[in-house]
Amino acid sequence: MAETTTKVLIPESFQGGTYDIAGQMGLIWELIKAPLIVPLLRICVYISLAMSLMLFFERLYMGIVIILVKLFWKKPEKRYKYEAIQEDLELGSSNFPVVLIQIPMFNEREVYKISIGAACGLSWPSDRLVIQVLDDSTDPTIKQMVELECQRWASKGINIRYQIRETRGGYKAGALKEGLKRSYVKHCEYVAIFDADFRPEPDYLRRAIPFLVHNPDIALVQARWRFVNSDECLLTRMQEMSLDYHFTVEQEVGSATHAFFGFNGTAGVWRIAAINEAGGWKDRTTVEDMDLAVRASLRGWKFLYLGDLQVKSELPSTFNAFRFQQHRWSCGPANLFRKMVMEIVKTKKVTLWKKFYVIYSFFFVRKIIAHMVTFFFYCVVLPLTILVPEVYVPIWGAVYIPSIITILNSVGTPRSIHLLFYWILFENVMSLHRTKATLIGLLETGRANEWVVTEKLGDIVKNKAAEAAKKPAPKFFKRPKFKFGNRLHLLELGFGAFLFVCGCYDYVHGKNNYFVYLFLQTITFLICGFGYVGTIIPSS
């Protein structure tokens, strides 16, 4: 029987250096680049350009509308019926509707006194106000502290109730839902919700409630957030820039054109009848506030945003806390979109134009495309085209469009215009987490329903700084103690390394000078990766 042998055909260029792994990999790269890599990367570029244009036209539309609103739209007091509620000499305070204040809490050691004190200081007849502290704390010491604070205010004649649950089922949505079931809530017409770090001004209810009283089709009056710690570090300053655009443009445009926007979960007053008609609070996603708002809007209820009614609050000042918050804020809307898109399509109580606005503009572009295009285009596709010069990215897509979008985004915080370039780099880093969270929400996998309460520090930083100023300067510098491992974020460090390689390649072989952007973006990824973004103090 003839002996059979198998021969492996190896290209000649391999045979001269079988052990030259780098050379072999280079040849494989050349073999697959033209038929596979180049076409795929071109498709990615076309998709990224299409998403960029979608985001550009959305930002341009809102920019035009907000200019028209500011120049020609009537003030809310003139667009809607509005008359301040006054005490009647004969009827007394019975002229005022009964309002419920809900303050959900979870281990809020540093801020519980702030929110309870602000709620108890609201200018509203005490016999027409019910304050409900919904404490889901797991720390018995904190629970006792919150309960004692409630008792202290109750001793002053304030109608304040301290409520706890056996379990945290449904998280915030579960606590709010349980609170509305209490017997003493049945005679309340409206409910104002404040998270534990929010501090409404005394006239908050007197300015918001009349819109609900005199306009029976309005379900929600939303106030704007103002941040007491925006100047604490560069991290809080970047957050202020992003959120100010959301309030100054997105909420204002939605309120003026469609009487619809996403409830921000706090600093808003709801008509309890609207909550009940919409099906009440649901805990199927981590954005129970947006869920309720969309369901109420689909039943024909209107929302009103008051930009000049502002409530002080706190921004996360640690990078870990901010990452968890952004995961929830990005994953939740994508998950809600997955669950509600067909319900929105089938509803018959709203116009076709409003359906299009909610599905395309509110959800698809702002909650999905905005995150993905920032990450995929500027942190993945664009750097890869440097390694594959056969793929061309037009200058209008790489530079002009994102520049215009960035300028439009900066209108919310004029005082931080000098930090605009830093903000771009930081937003690109955060787009990595937002994209990951968005995909988790769309696919409903992994951490889709993860709820981590945002850490709040209250005045602890300010108080420690004041104490340190009073003490004599130490003779020797003491390093702050921290666990370095807790600060390391491998995902950011990995992308920083990838962008650094692309930047070096572009510096040596490139023609577009993208290496300037890539090196700066690398530095930003590394700063975030090593956990130092929350320690940088911004210039005024």
From TrEMBL:
Keywords: Cell wall biogenesis/degradation, Glycosyltransferase, Golgi apparatus, Membrane, Transferase, Transmembrane, Transmembrane helix
Domain (Glycosyltransferase 2-like) ranges: 190-393
CDD domains recorded: CESA_CaSu_A2
Domain of life of the organism encoding this protein: Eukaryota
GO terms, biological process: cell wall organization
Gene Ontology CC annotations of this record: Golgi apparatus; Golgi membrane
Cellular compartment(s): Golgi apparatus membrane
Enzyme Commission no: 2.4.1.32
Catalytic activity: GDP-mannose + (glucomannan)n = GDP + (glucomannan)n+1
Gene3D superfamilies in the cross-refs: Spore Coat Polysaccharide Biosynthesis Protein SpsA, Chain A
Membrane topology of this protein: Multi-pass membrane protein
Primary subcellular site in the record, as a coarse category: Golgi
Uppermost EC category: transferase
GO molecular function: glucomannan 4-beta-mannosyltransferase activity; mannan synthase activity
One Pfam family it belongs to: Glyco_trans_2_3
Sequence similarity: Belongs to the glycosyltransferase 2 family. Plant cellulose synthase-like A subfamily.
Protein name: glucomannan 4-beta-mannosyltransferase
Species for this entry: Prunus persica (Peach)
Classification lineage: Eukaryota, Viridiplantae, Streptophyta, Embryophyta, Tracheophyta
